[in-house]
Description:
The chain is α+β, with helices and mostly antiparallel strands. Helix content is 35%, strand content 24%.
Amino acid sequence: MPVDRRIGLLFAVFLAMLLLAGGRASWLGLVRADTLKAAAITQQEHEIVVPARRGAITDTNGNELAVSHPAMTVAATPYLVERPDEAARELATALGVPEDELLRQLVRRDTGFVYLARKVPVRRAERARKLGIEGLELIPEYDREYPRTWMASQLIGSVGAEGNGLSGLEYGLDAELRGHDGERRLVKDALGDTLELDEVERTEAGADVELTLDAAIQDQTEEVLAEVGETWRPKGATALVMNPDTGAILALANWPRVNANKLYQAPDYAMMNRAVGHTYEPGSTFKAFTVAAALEDGEVTPDTMFSLPPVLQVADREITDSHARGWVSRSTAGIIAESSNVGAALIQRRMGARRFDQWVRRFGFGRPTGVDLPGEEAGILLSYDDYSGSTSANMAMGQGLAVTPMQMGAAYAAIANGGMLRPPHIVEAVGGRPRAVPAGRRVISEATASSIRRMLEGVLGPGGTASGAAIPGYLLAGKTGTAEKPDPVTGGYSKSKYVSSFVGFAPAKQPKLLVAVMVDEPQGDIYGGTVAGPAFKRITEFALTNLRIAPG
């Protein structure tokens, strides 16, 4: 072949290749430009969320109940990881993550960024870094920890993997605690080297929350409930300690206890904060409000005498006392001290059904207390239009309505503090700024409150239903409750399932402390004075000493 033809043919080949390359470049640059640009950005630019430090939760003395510790998120750029199988094996040992899970992420080619492990302790993350695996990244974040482990776990609640509150105060105060996550843009070159790291949005740490809770009193309360659980084997139990003057909650305990750092291992019923989420018929603890209403309306005095029959017929219901007896005469104060069902029904009869219904609602029953805790139930209270002929008499002795332990604590606090009903509260300050204490409203006069307190002293005195709960040196006031639980099968009341309770305060004349104990379905004994009374005594005795409240 002549040289000129060879040169011409070679030139034609090069020209064809040049045209092909130009066409390919035009196709990529014009037709597929957006697609390829997006792919490059996916592989070379990453938006990284920088989690904010979640605020700490502390008790009133600064003891930490929930804190956030530095941790690491371990991520990778898959296409930069050579020998993914070997990397997965080494990382599994360092991170404590299953090897197959890591391998599935490392072999992905649809993205330039994958998460391998979240909230890894810094020590483990450093082990992974020292492996020297190309394409591995460590991103700072925080892990939530509960230093007291078991303490107030249902109250404090839990946080999810993404740092959002799921239950308890972690959920109720999530907006204040979680802060504001930041964002960074990471730009890499084709080899995976970092070219640029920009802060797109600044991180703002969450606010610290201080509670009115006292860790020492909380710990003692939980220990007492644990003994109640061991002795009486109930379905559940709750105890509440409160300052009746301010409504500040000093302790709130639930049994069974659960590990706050392993809430996912606890059964659903154990995770409930029973103080606000559980309703029950209060039984005889409700009689204090029946008497308070009659005193305030001028229908009775503490010395008003009643002739009590062995059986009182009210519409379709026969009302008797807990122990068989003949005809007796008792004063209003005696009816409270001996917890007479018949006496309570006769006191209510003097007010009439409509007026009594108004008083029950005035004390806050049938609606939430307004406590700063999530998940509060309103209780169950019939509309007056749905009353039967015996409804009022049943309610007078604590049947036919359902309350929460928090409602009972708040209503008894009104008797203890001179007649003011206030929403209880547990949040003392947020971000160092004190929360305002609700003013409350007057429900009974100081004189009526004082009369009720004196009558409730008799419950712990000789012949009272809780004489064993007395504390030497202190004059106490309170009321026992032993309530049959409704039976959904028969529509009546169970003869084997009860709620035992005690609500009281100390010192009786000028109360500085209120303690409520509720035990759901105790086994072996059922009476509030026997089951809940001793728990009240031990909690109150410790709290009086801890708070240095003088005898009186």
